[in-house]
């Protein structure tokens, strides 16, 4: 917890830069007028030409393979400008979604109450069997209700209704 608070305290620029979200546009439009019926030759050797200034800069740029250098930083997608904030937001997002989300959901599913009352009905059945054994009653009684208290409809009320026993 102390590490979390320390990391949050170090990110003082978070509130100031939270609204600054740079969107990188992506246009996947091909402007090439190459045609598939044009034959290309792969055995042609390129001509030696003096290196242009742009090629020299690119070679210098890609010669640097130090992963800690700011030029070689590839953002995780949470912040495009600040490397530390990007890593912090990635770690916090993974912590909350993976640890709290999955483990918390598993905890809730494991300890949720018995909604269908299956455990209750089994427990109640065992208690009723134990009570009947203790009182010397049969385990299953034919007359669960007292027949004198049950009011059945008369034949006139039933009419043509079929009674299945």
From TrEMBL:
Places the protein is found: Mitochondrion inner membrane
Top-level taxon in the UniProt lineage: Eukaryota
Assigned keywords, A-Z: Electron transport, Membrane, Mitochondrion, Mitochondrion inner membrane, Respiratory chain, Transit peptide, Transmembrane, Transmembrane helix, Transport
GO cellular component: mitochondrial inner membrane
A Pfam family annotated for this UniProt entry: ESSS
Residue spans crossing the bilayer: 93-111
Family annotation (InterPro entries): NADH_UbQ_OxRdtase_ESSS_su (IPR019329)
Membrane topology: Single-pass membrane protein
Main location as per UniProt: mitochondrion
Extent of the signal sequence: none
Family named by the database record: Belongs to the complex I NDUFB11 subunit family.
Assembly notes: Complex I is composed of 45 different subunits. Interacts with BCAP31.
Function of the molecule: Accessory subunit of the mitochondrial membrane respiratory chain NADH dehydrogenase (Complex I), that is believed not to be involved in catalysis. Complex I functions in the transfer of electrons from NADH to the respiratory chain. The immediate electron acceptor for the enzyme is believed to be ubiquinone.
Protein's name according to its UniProt entry: NADH dehydrogenase [ubiquinone] 1 beta subcomplex subunit 11, mitochondrial
Organism the protein comes from: Potamilus streckersoni
């Amino acid at each position: 917890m102390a590490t979390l608070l320390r990391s949050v305290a170090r990110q003082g620029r978070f509130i100031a830069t939270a609204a600054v979200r740079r969107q990188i546009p992506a246009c996947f439009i091909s402007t090439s007028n190459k045609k598939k019926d044009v034959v290309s030759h792969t055995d042609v050797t390129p001509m030696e030409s003096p290196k242009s200034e742009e090629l020299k800069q690119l070679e210098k740029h890609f010669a640097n393979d130090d992963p800690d250098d700011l030029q070689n930083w590839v953002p995780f997608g949470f912040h495009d400008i600040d490397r530390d904030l990007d890593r912090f937001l990635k770690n916090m997002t993974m912590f909350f979604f993976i640890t709290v989300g999955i483990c918390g959901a598993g905890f809730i599913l494991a300890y949720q109450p018995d909604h269908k009352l299956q455990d209750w009905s089994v427990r109640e059945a065992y208690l009723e069997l134990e009570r009947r054994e203790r009182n010397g009653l049969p385990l299953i009684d034919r007359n669960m209700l007292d027949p004198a208290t049950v009011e059945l409809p008369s034949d006139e009320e039933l009419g043509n209704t079929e009674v299945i026993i």
